[in-house]
């Protein structure tokens, strides 16, 4: 290592991040803090419950999630809007949104399917599962033929 590299190495490490980087760091820390309040088993996918919402299952009237549940969880868990319950308590649910991306189809009680960019993460002692929910109001969504 040269004298120059040693001299400027620490200064480079102390450079303050830009606005976009700060927002990303804040988001990561918020997500980590929120997930830390969940009991240990909650951060595990409950495959049996998630299978109901997977493509190819013969569950009549069930909403279908086209995205990988574990990847959605990695990106959004702990950052969603609280829908029911208290974070860390049984029955907690949070709404997550992928703006501009169709992540699944939500089926209403009449059996009509609609593309959606939103889902609800259901947490329990046995793990989490993700269920597509009503769209976030984005005009790009339309009924699925």
Question: What would you note in describing this structure?
Answer:
With 145 residues, the chain is of the alpha+beta class. It has a domain at 37-133. Helices cover 29% and strands 23% of the residues. It has helices spanning 3-13, 19-36, 47-51, 69-76, and strands at 64-65, 81-84, 93-97, 104-107, 113-116, 118-124, 127-133. It has a four-stranded antiparallel β-sheet with strand order 2-3-6-7. A three-stranded antiparallel β-sheet has the order 1-4-5, with no helix packed on it. The protein is globular. It starts with a helix and ends in a 12-residue tail after the last strand. The relative contact order is 0.17. Residues 139-145 have low confidence and may be disordered.
């Amino acid at each position: 290592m040269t004298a120059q590299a040693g001299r400027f190495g620490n200064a480079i490490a102390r450079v303050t991040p830009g606005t976009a980087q700060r927002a990303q760091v804040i988001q990561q820390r918020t997500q980590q803090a929120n997930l830390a309040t969940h009991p240990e088993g909650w951060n595990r996918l409950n495959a049996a419950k998630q299978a109901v919402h997977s493509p190819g299952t013969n569950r009549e009237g069930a909403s279908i999630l086209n995205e990988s549940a574990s990847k959605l969880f990695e990106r959004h868990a702990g950052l969603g809007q609280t829908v029911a319950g208290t974070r860390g308590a049984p029955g907690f649910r949070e709404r997550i949104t992928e703006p501009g991306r169709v992540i699944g189809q939500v089926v209403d009680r009449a059996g009509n399917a609609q593309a959606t960019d939103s889902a609800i993460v259901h947490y329990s002692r046995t793990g989490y599962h993700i269920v597509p929910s009503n769209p976030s109001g984005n005009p790009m969504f339309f009924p699925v033929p």
